[in-house]
Design goal:
alpha/beta, Rossmann fold, 4-stranded antiparallel β-sheet, 10 strands, 32% helix, binds adenosine-5'-triphosphate, P-loop_NTPase, ATP-binding
Amino acid sequence: MVRTALSQTILEVKNITKRFGGVEALRGVSFSVKKGEVVGLLGDNGAGKSTLVRCISGIHSPDEGEILIAGKAVKLDSPMQARNAGIETVFQDLAIIPEFDVVQNLYLNREIRSANPILRWFGWLDSKAMAKRSQKSLNRLNSRIPSLTEKISNLSGGQRQAVAIARAVSWGAEIVIMDEPTAALGVEQSAQVNELIRLISSQGVAVVLISHNMQHVIDTCDRAVVLYQGRCNADVAIGDVDKNTLVALITGAADMTLAQPA
Ligand SMILES: Nc1ncnc2c1ncn2[C@@H]1O[C@H](COP(=O)(O)OP(=O)(O)OP(=O)(O)O)[C@@H](O)[C@H]1O
């Protein structure tokens, strides 16, 4: 599926190198993502995908290279700095608390405190405001979540993903990175998550998606960036490749480095 991405480049990763002792996990990786674009980040086990995502999320500091947001170089030395730069990452564990309800999870660590100074002093939260804004965020995503007061443990895997994605975009993220969002889901739930990814991209959010599922990549992404042994092996429009080519790029049987845009 190919959609017209908005033309402004929002994320640029330039020549990122990251070493762990003697292991060079990333060797001069560059790629960029436009507003509203969905880019698949592919690669075999150990290719460097998680390390790259961790550099963009402020968890690892690259040894070399730079990251630009909307054309400006940014220092992402902590997850908070990445968040402040408009980058949200939905990791596989989703970082949601099963015993908490939907609103509590959407506002986890960012609770709205009561407007009343006395109640505020006692640490009271503004539940009404959080519920109202949560409803708005979920409406924006055409949510199928039954109730805001539903405990996360009662939701399906796809609905949990939806809560994690809603939390990411409800804070105004311009770039959302997702690590294997459909890995643990069945066919129908995966399709719903894909729909959600397309929806946020149509609202201008740039999405970087780690996936090992080629059909998912073909169905959801505009472009694929393939890592092989820490290097960028290809940066291709999904319309220009088929599943077999993607697999060949991932295993290193093919290399489209020369075909990449300058
Ligand atoms: N904290 C670390 N310390 C040492 N080596 C690391 C560390 N993190 C990653 N590596 C190494 O860096 C390389 C890239 O690993 P990375 O986890 O980024 O790959 P990946 O593409 O995400 O793999 P997978 O699909 O299996 O998650 C591997 O050789 C890995 O062993």
